Amino acid sequence: MTNKDLADFLFPNINKTIADYEKEYPARDLPENACVTRYAPSPTGFMHIGNFYQVVVDYVIAKRNNGVFYLRNEDTDQAREIEGAVEYIRHVLEHYKLLPDEYEFRDTKETKGNYGPYIQSERKDIYKAFIKELVEKGKAYPCFLTQEEMDIIRENQSAKKARIGIYGKFAKYRNATPEELIEHLKNGESYTIRLKSEGDFDEKFKFDDLANGEMELHENDLDTIIYKSSTELPTYHFAHLVDDHLMRTTHVIRGQEWMSSIPVHYELFKTFGFELPKYIHTPLILKKDGDKIRKISKRLDPEARMTYYEEKGYPIYAVIEAIMTIANSNYEAWREQNPDANFTEFDFSPKKMSPSGALFDLDKLDNISKNYISKLKATEVFDLLNDYTKEYDTEFNELINKYKEYTINILNIEREQEKPRKDYACMKDVRELIWYMYDELYKVSEYEWKNITDKDEIKNILNVYVNKYYDESDDKDTWFNKVKELCDELGYASNIKEYKADPSKFKGNVADVSTVIRVAITSKSNTPDLYELMRLLGKERIINRINMI
Ligand code: GLU
Predict the structure, then answer these.
(1) Which letter does DSSP use for residue 119 in this model?
(2) Which of 38, 191, 277, 350 is the most buried (most CB within 10 A)?
(3) Ligand 1 site, CB within 6 A
(4) Amino acid 355: pLDDT
(5) Pairing mode, strands 36-39 and 225-228
(6) What is the atom index within ligand 1 of the atom nearest the CA of 38?
């Protein structure tokens, strides 16, 4: 009996060959230098910031040279699959407008692209054809080691301080004859298929990771599992080989954790004589925790999950921008030079990634976002707020729509000017900063009085102001002059310089008096421009609020 008999016995119904698939998925017709990237998540968990980082890098590298960015659902570990994970990935890609050029969604039966199926569990026959040829050539074999046997091997290796794994003499079925192997198969034993490694651990090879640089690695000599009979699916290593080859990926962008698998992947590509794609192993995302810097954690850090950014209502621009800033060290400088360019116009260089870890900082995100939001028109902020509140705050959504013009006017305070106010980092902030503008929400638990706290004095200031000085139709200068007159009348300095020269001459100054008015009508000591707020609140509401004190 020959290896061919063994291969036929294993896969009797597989008739297509590798050559057939090569024809079916020919080299892509793309411009020179165009890159083909893919996001290849396993739906075993919810998307986190590290995944998103990969997506952004995939996207920017593909778009730069009119390449292709595709999505591949790596669902070979079906036992660990989480319901809704794929739908969520799709949602994130749509939300951030990073939709791939090619993809397939099982639920909606949507598919786009000529290199599918893009779901691994639908590619069983393709993998089998590749494995069948490998078995036929004597480069892979079925292995019947049980978990118990493997545990014993591992214990022995560890006791003798030998390298762990199934290789050389530990690979019990490596040199079995096709007859012997077929005999086991006939008995119905569960099996895996292992690569019959031709590597030598004592030999080294050079490997160039675009982000991490050139490295020298030991050759693989493990008879790695490439297929499991229990699921009829390949392992990640083998699916990576077949899919990235047939889908004509040029750049594999994936997490650091795959770095240790390079020797296996290198050997697999060599065994088939396929060109190795370029690799970018992305850094860990780090965060500052007190004075320590540590890996961001899905368990400990809410910002590690992508849901965080939507729940807070960060503009998509800001989140992508924050990622680009940590992904390439010269991005910020480029952005300064090109404030209005799309991030895909940036000439992304994997060499300018930081392999040792990318420090993600929420303050930085807030800054980027505040800057961005401050430059939007009030109507644009309203639209963002409307979208956000529709999903996350229906009470506020009703209010802002009921008083739409009023809300836009509030959002317009200190906007569209040379130095706009930068107070909203995300849409969640908006309600927290302007709730007092809506009577429906105006329930004061605490007035933030500052220097003047005496209730009688506060009431006196407000009474005199309302009865003698306040006139709804005043322009800003007149309004302010009247506040100053009020100060003069009540013994407060209307001029700060004079006050500073001799504070003992005054009960306080114009800032203290303005604060009393501000707090009386909003309860807050820090608000946008008081004149504008008063103009929008209007006389009746102002008087009502003053009477509430
Ligand atoms: N399915 C693998 C993972 O989620 C993908 C790694 C890769 O991009 O090749 O880690």
Answers:
(1) B
(2) 38
(3) 40-42, 74, 240, 252, 254-255, 258
(4) 84
(5) unpaired
(6) 8
How many angstroms separate the CA atoms of 412 and 422, rounded? 12
d(CA 271, CA 291): 48
AA identity, residue 94: E
Q: Which atom of ligand 1 is nearest to the CA of 254?
A: 8
What is the tens place of the pLDDT at every residue in 35-46?
999 999 999 988
Give the strand pairing for 213-218 and 225-228.
Answer: unpaired
How many Å lie between the centroid of ligand 1 and the Cα of residue 249? 14
Q: Residue 41 CA: which ligand 1 atom is closest?
A: 4
Which of 245, 286, 251 lies closest to 58, judged by CA? Answer: 251
Identify the residue whose tokens are 């297929």.
227
Residue 546 · residue 470 · CB < 8 Å: no
Q: Does residue 166 sit in helix, strand or coil?
A: coil
End-to-end CA distance of the chain: 98
The one-letter amino acid at 515: T
Distance 496 CA to ligand 1 centre (A): 63
Nearest alpha-carbon partner for 104 in 125, 92, 120: 120
Closest Cα to residue 481, out of 543, 531, 535, 526? Answer: 531
Q: Considering just the CA atoms, what is the radius of gyration of the chain in Å?
A: 33
**Beta-bridge partners for 48:** 305
Structural domains of the chain, ranges and CATH numbers in brackets:
124-282 (3.40.50.620), 287-349+360-374 (1.10.1160), 376-441 (no CATH), 444-549 (1.10.10.350)
Q: Rounded distance, CA 147 to CA 232, Å?
A: 18
How far is 55 from 38, CA to CA, in rounded Å? Answer: 8
What is the model's pTM?
A: 0.94
Q: Cα(114) to centroid of ligand 1, in Å? A: 21
Mean pLDDT of the chain: 97
